[in-house]
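pasting for ref
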Amino acid sequence: MNRTAVTTELRATLAIAAPLAAANLAQMTIGFTNAVMVGRLGGVPLAAAGLGASLYVTIGIALQGIVSALAPLAAHALGAGDRDSAARIAGQGLALALTFALPFVLIIMTFDGLLLRLGYDPALAAEIRRYQHAIVWGAPAMLTMGALRSFLAAQARTRPVMLVLFGGVAANAALNWVFIYGHLGAPALGVAGAGYSTAANQWIMLSALACYVAASPALAAARVVRGMLAWHWRDIAAILRLGLPIGGIFLLEIGSFVATGVLMGLIGADALAANQIVGNCIGFTFMVPFGLAQAATVRIAYECGSGRRDAAWRAAVVALTLGICFMVAASIVLWLAPRAIIAVYIDVSAAENAAVIAIAVQLFAIAALFQVFDGMQAVAAGALRGYKDTAIPMLLACVGYWGFGFLGSWVLAFPLGYGAPGLWWGLAIGTAVVGVLLTLRLYRVGASRRYIDAGRAERTG
């Protein structure tokens, strides 16, 4: 590859990816803040908020994944010089986000009954119900915010997203202080207060981002609104055709980790605590390659829309290389400093935490080994979305995460008796399989199209 072209692409990718990665990290920080502040109420409220948030976020991210298909579609239109189509597609994505809000709310409202039928303690189920019936008021804002973030990513305007999420961290902590503990004249709502705070914060962040879009003439907010009010079935079909598999991939990936957490609870409380510590930590490291994946989606779609397949492939290679390099560094840190990381979450000098620490150290070692594959699968999936290739990647993810990962976790942990490390070895195997398969798929889709176009140009010349 031409060095100047690679340098130019590196700058273009980082200009989009860095703010998105920072925004993703801020989103994780909001969840971490919630856990710390609810944790002061006791074990049951913390468990209720943790599980309630996991279920809420899992469904929400899957639905956001469907709507996020507007990013490659709008970027492709922008690359072709068709700004009207990009605005119309964004409007259709916003309309779909609002349409999905009602089923999202209905699903969340039924979880407490399902948990009771599964045998959950009624007191814990009641606390989960209080939390979820509060946070669900933010569901429409969460989905609409996701659509606006995708539209701004397609426009390569990601810094406002970062700034809004940073502001959301502070706003969420302040709202928690008011509603969880009862300050400034507000009643102390406990775990429900955390739900209301998160819901209110989602509306605040949505309002801030919407104001930015409305105040930016280049974003054609009026055309976006017109597109939202008038349904264009061809655009809706295109978003669903591309977006349903994206949502499916998110659900398969997150679901495999959640299911592993459920199995970890069968091993014991110490194993579950260690799983939560390591899982939360690698959630932070994953946000960087996920930001690169989002950048790869819009960069590749834009170049494909412009007819520059060679530039699209260069964007894919640059993003994948950056993702691998970052995850190599993350692997080294996880391998060398597990106890220092654990100390952020619990008191490592306390004798009662010895079992948790011992298990967590083992899990960190395994997590360090599959970080690179996790970065590969994230960026490769994002790049394939830029090529509008999502159906086959979803099938590959299903095979890897569940055929190898979850099944391997169960076999290693229980029939073979490896316990908690066995569960994480299964995750490692599944993630490695998905990483390799999606990277090979990316090479087949991206590089092959590049060579085909080059061959056509040579024959034409």
